[in-house]
Amino acid sequence: MRRAALVFALGLLSACDGFASCFYDTIAKPEMLPALEPLDAIGGLSAERCAACHAEIAAEWSTSLMAAATTNPFYVADHAHRHELFLCERCHNPLENQMRDVVDDLASLDPLTGKGHPNPRYDPALEREGVTCVVCHASAEALGEARAPTIVPGERAADAPPSPHPVAVAAALDEHGTMCRRCHQYDPPFVGLPRPPADTHAEYDRYRGAGGDKTCLDCHMPRVEGRVANTSPLRSRRGHRFLGARDGAFVAAFVSATAEVTREGITLVVDNRAGHHVPTAEPGRVLAATVELVGGGATLASRRVRFRRDFDPEHLVERYDTSLAPLEVRRVPVPFTAAQRAAAEAVRVRLDLYRYEARHPLALAAGIGEGALVAHVATSTVPAAEGP
Ligand code: HEC
Ligand code: HEC
Ligand code: HEC
Ligand code: HEC
Ligand code: HEC
Question: Model pTM?
Fold first, then answer.
């Protein structure tokens, strides 16, 4: 019996090239998107080509983190720290044309290390474009289609100029972000975390289940009046700025905080109307509420309450999760003394969202100070006199 097991195990090992190789197919990983051919009539794949005719949309996209997915200093530092792990590239620069090496095997399981071969079709300029236009608009695999999307007439405006190329708006680019899921939800099995490391879509499903009526695109690609192509007439089209945690005014439209004053004390009340947890996914993000007692033009006392999901993405250990659930109204008593409260004229609540706090290892590695990494969301002030 033991011999049979041994023979079986040896057979399994000899079927793959080394021990780690046996596991390549079984580890949870987004797949690489097969290489795309330059599109006729566009003459390439670069966003610069698209920009020649879609100037407004390209300018919007270029300000988003998806355009900086391989170049932003935090990713660069983190990717280097993880020894350029191939897994990262499957979301940050997912097309085969964007990869220096094509990894289809493992050299080691712990630490996870890929094994591959140099890619003859590697296009370094395209790699620097990160999640570029053709990832979302031309890759059949990203869109879950049997073949590259061809022009689907759909609801085209009567006065729209004819499109010179077969890049179409595909079904998976729907309101609920069906195609966003492959990168914004990462749910590997056997991970000792209470929730998946990236959980934005499951959070969104709970938001919808709880009665939330907005979609990913309503919030992140709201319609704007503009030109679909340079030659198109002005009409309502999808914005491509993909605003998120870095834009205080955007966050303020969905997250707010105030203070309630009663005889018992002061309570911070934070309201999350975003379509997922706040913060969501990236564990470095921190929503911080600073509650201050003010009187005589001075700040008399101040307390800070932080909301975040703190886990180590490398070793997959969660320390705590105080992020706000979708549609949650969180009430947190803030401990000021009765004497401090008696001296105060008003209670001020300042809400900020940190991309990374000053002491975060990635902020230190990238050498970027906290001042450049915080978005001010809103400030609200209420009288310190007791309510009912
Ligand atoms: C030579 C000019 C030109 C280039 C280059 C070009 N486009 Fe277009 N594209 C157009 C025009 C014109 C339309 C139709 C505009 C309208 O509907 O008003 C269009 C429409 C589209 C649409 C909407 C299709 C639909 O079914 O409504 C998408 C998506 C698109 N382009 C993506 C891209 C991408 C991605 C690139 C770069 C890889 C690109 N385009 C390059 C001219 C161009
Ligand atoms: C191929 C993978 C991929 C797909 C598909 C994808 N994203 Fe992303 N997205 C990323 C990555 C990677 C980042 C972060 C880049 C960074 O900060 O390094 C990101 C960042 C974002 C951000 C933050 C942008 C900012 O500037 O703060 C938003 C919002 C977003 N994505 C929404 C979406 C939506 C909506 C969709 C679907 C329409 C989508 N994404 C599809 C990979 C993807
Ligand atoms: C399943 C897709 C996926 C994989 C795999 C992935 N990322 Fe990301 N990454 C994202 C998305 C999506 C974001 C956008 C932030 C968010 O969703 O909170 C992001 C954001 C980041 C950020 C924040 C950058 C910023 O601009 O603030 C860093 C750093 C990062 N990723 C590093 C890595 C590294 C290093 C790896 C490999 C060990 C990796 N990622 C693997 C999808 C992925
Ligand atoms: C993260 C995915 C993603 C990226 C990257 C992206 N788009 Fe889009 N794009 C979408 C989605 C989603 C829609 C909306 C589809 C719909 O409404 O049916 C869209 C719509 C469009 C449209 C049609 C606009 C309209 O409302 O009629 C054009 C044209 C377009 N994109 C061009 C581009 C160009 C050019 C780039 C790069 C500069 C780009 N897109 C990058 C996801 C993306
Ligand atoms: C009701 C509005 C709303 C909906 C619906 C919504 N979001 Fe967000 N999203 C926000 C707000 C507000 C923030 C900024 C606060 C935060 O980071 O959680 C944000 C932030 C993000 C970020 C940036 C995270 C970071 O740390 O940089 C990503 C990525 C994102 N959303 C993706 C999605 C995806 C994918 C969907 C659909 C599955 C979606 N969102 C649905 C409002 C929304």
Answer: 0.95
